[in-house]
Amino acid sequence: MKKIAYLTIDDAPSKDFKRKVDYLLSKNILAIFFCRGELLKQRPKIVIYAIKKGFIIGNHSYNHPYFSRLILKQCFEQIKKTDEIIDKLYKKAEVRRPIKVFRFPSLDKGGKNKKAVQILLKKLGYKQPKFKNITYKWYQKEHGKDIDVYCSYDTYDWTTIDKKPEFGIKGLKEVLERMEEDDPEGCRGLNYKGSNEIIMMHDFTGTAHMFKPMIEHLLAKGIVFKLPSIK
Prior knowledge:
231 residues, alpha/beta, TIM Barrel, 8 helices, 12% strand, globular
């Protein structure tokens, strides 16, 4: 049985967004793009293009703050403002918005605001897609019942453009080497056959050169990409 992965891509849409969309389409891969409201306003046409092609546009806040550093009112504003922008883009695309999905910026669930934000997400109609067979104990314990979308595998592409790369992951070489590790309960279970994956990548211009090699490497492993069930 081949391993299934659900591809999620944060911080879209960048200047390279359409190229990434077209590349994924060439590989018959659809993904969830978690988008920033401020970037959606800058590049609406390419997002409408992605919507028409079957990609899901998720909410990734308006301008990517740490939610634990905000007051609750600001958390609500970040979500609602972006939610309204996404609604308008789906209407312009003449496509019914299939599901409302949210990912916290930097996976920061809001600290003391977490419970209230989960309640707000539910009120706004957000829900967790059905990511089948994510069996990791750490994931089920920490994130299994939340409404926001977390990930089971972080590619760490984002840290390659940081001033101080985390865990020494400075470039594509280290990102691909990390994909060869086998530590299911240490968030590095790509080579573990007992669970599917929610993979997190990023739509940064600074990591655009890594995008295709990363996907190619994952496909070479025999991973099959699918969209989660949204019913």
